[in-house]
Amino acid sequence: MLRIHLTEADVARTRLAGVPDPAWEVPLSRRILHSEHAAPVFGAWRSQVRRAPSLDSYFDVALAPHWHTICAHVAVEHRVRAGKPFSVTHPALRWTPLGLDVVGPAEQDVRLDGRGLTLAPSFFCWGAPVYFMELRVLAFPIDHAPGWADNSAAEPSEQSLTTLLGRTRAAVLGAIRAQPHITTTELARRLGISAAGASQHAAVLRESGLITTVRLAGVAIHALAPRGRALLGQPRLCTTIVHSLAAGETTPFHHSVTHA
């Protein structure tokens, strides 16, 4: 049992992460990559990145093509919980008057010394929560949209590019750039058009490979695809991964609970 003790100062600084972070998604994804668990959820992704290169380029190969999808899943979890860290539940977690107990094979007490705890909805955390000592982060599993790997990494269609001319679609593309992970309803409100119209314009942009869309809990969430960023003159997303992750210096606390 891992016992995370929370003082009043810790409680005041405890938060629910609203965005994913490579600091935990990278090591957790590498665990998934080298296991055969969760094939229905991660099988297609594993087949795409099975021969991923060194850590220097791992993020660009394994996670970057799906980063919008990952962000959207985490954002939905954050919204569902209204940003409240103490709403997090899992069979391996138990809130107590002293803090948070995490089921696991080892007996260990963790004191945060008033620095607080981050509870992180994690795309690549599977089965049981994982605690990262150095980061003071407890990653916990979230639900996944069916076929997420195929949908988020699909090759764009060239055929629809000629349909993009027009003021409204240009405005739609600009709105998605201005507000990443915008919903169709928010898009319609921002541009003063109907939700049906916003959905139709987004569909054309998506078919042209300019945006990506993830649908979770009945809500469509849009973001720019690499082609859309290039069209609007945005620089390519660059992400640096800390080398200590490769050496295991950021070591997760492993738990015995497995996914049913």
Model description:
- By secondary structure, the chain is an alpha/beta fold.
- The protein folds into two domains: 2-146 and 240-253, no CATH class; 157-224, Arc Repressor Mutant, subunit A, CATH 1.10.10.
- It contains ten helices and twelve strands.
- It has helices at residues 8-13, 22-33, 39-49, 55-63, 67-80, 148-152, 167-178, 184-191, 195-207, 226-231, and strands spanning 2-5, 15-16, 93-96, 99-102, 108-111, 118-122, 130-132, 137-141, 182-183, 211-216, 219-224, 252-253.
- The protein has a five-stranded mixed beta sheet.
- Strand 3 and strand 4 form a beta hairpin.
- It is globular, with a radius of gyration of 20 Å.
- Residues 159-237 form the HTH arsR-type domain.
- Pfam families: MarR_2 (PF12802).
- Keywords: DNA-binding, Transcription, Transcription regulation.
- InterPro entries: ArsR-like_HTH, HTH_ArsR_DNA-bd_dom, HTH_MarR-typ, Metal_resp_trans_reg, WH-like_DNA-bd_sf, WH_DNA-bd_sf.
- This is DNA-binding transcriptional regulator, ArsR family.
How many discrete structural domains? 2
Arrangement of strands in the largest sheet: 2-6-8-7-12
Radius of gyration: 20 Å
Strand-pairing-aware structural class: alpha/beta
Number of strands: 12
Beta fraction: 15-25%
Number of helices: 10
Estimated helix fraction: 25-40%
Overall morphology:
globular
Low-pLDDT regions: 155-162, 234-260
Main sheet record? 5 strands, mixed
Protein name: DNA-binding transcriptional regulator, ArsR family
Domain HTH arsR-type: 159-237
InterPro entries: ArsR-like_HTH (IPR011991), HTH_ArsR_DNA-bd_dom (IPR001845), HTH_MarR-typ (IPR000835), Metal_resp_trans_reg (IPR051011), WH-like_DNA-bd_sf (IPR036388), WH_DNA-bd_sf (IPR036390)
Keywords: DNA-binding, Transcription, Transcription regulation
